[in-house]
Amino acid sequence: MMGVLKWSVRIHKWVALIVGIQIMLWIAGGLVMSAIPIEQVRGEHKIAATESLAASPADLLALEQVTDQHEIGAISEAVLGQVLGAPVWRLKSADGETFVIDASSGDRLDPVSETLARRIAETDYSGTGSLVSVLSVANPPSEYGRPGPVWRAVFDDSDATTLYIDPATADVRARRSSTWRFYDFFWKLHVMDYDDGADFNHPLLITAAGAAIFVAMSGLVLLIIKMRRSLIAWRRRRAA
């Protein structure tokens, strides 16, 4: 019995030492994620206010006119949106090609030019910094979370705000900053996915969580055994 208890204590200590490091990282990650407002992480506080699109149908080109003008035989999706406050048709053809077309003039806006990307970035941003670079990136960093190409617009504010603009849709697809990167670093440690932080159902995390439960349960059992032995020894001393 003593031998089993001795080995149980040793196993408990070694597993606790290994898992304890990850438990500390889980706690640190939880602290960071609870202390920083998610709106600040997403950069929502630096998004310029925009008015909802309100266009007269008489001023818009009909969908049929647009498809005829650009020789689009069949479409699977058509959405009326806006770019820089102007109405646009966002179309997807039956073969998957996307179009962004000015709903007033019929001009095709995609792929987005550097000039348009710059205007989109400056219009979207409401911070105190200035736009310092707009660069077309074929293979964007993992923080973008999508394949390229993409326009990367960088501002010189204290948070190094970076906007990623999709050249195919003229949308701001991602907003990144130093705050986001700091948060993302602890998120990856928290979910133990050190690549892109997107997978939190992988075997490593499940194993670590199971080991943490084992440490907690075994520690509780060992504590009960130790308390029982201490109680018995105390009663014997008292009886003597």
List keywords for this structure.
240 residues; 45% helix; alpha+beta; 7 strands; three-stranded antiparallel beta sheet
Written overview of the protein:
α1 (2-35) crosses α6. The protein has six helices and seven strands. It has a four-stranded antiparallel β-sheet. Strands 1-2-3 form a three-stranded antiparallel β-sheet, with helices on one face. The chain is an alpha+beta fold and 240 residues long. 45% of the residues lie in helices and 18% in strands. It is elongated. The chain has a domain at 2-38 and 186-239. The protein has helices spanning 2-35, 38-41, 63-69, 114-124, 178-191, 203-239, and strands spanning 75-83, 86-93, 98-102, 131-137, 150-155, 162-165, 172-176.
Could you tell me the mean pLDDT?
Answer: 88
Q: Helical residue percent?
A: 40-55%
| Most strands sheet | 4 strands, antiparallel
Count the E strands: 7
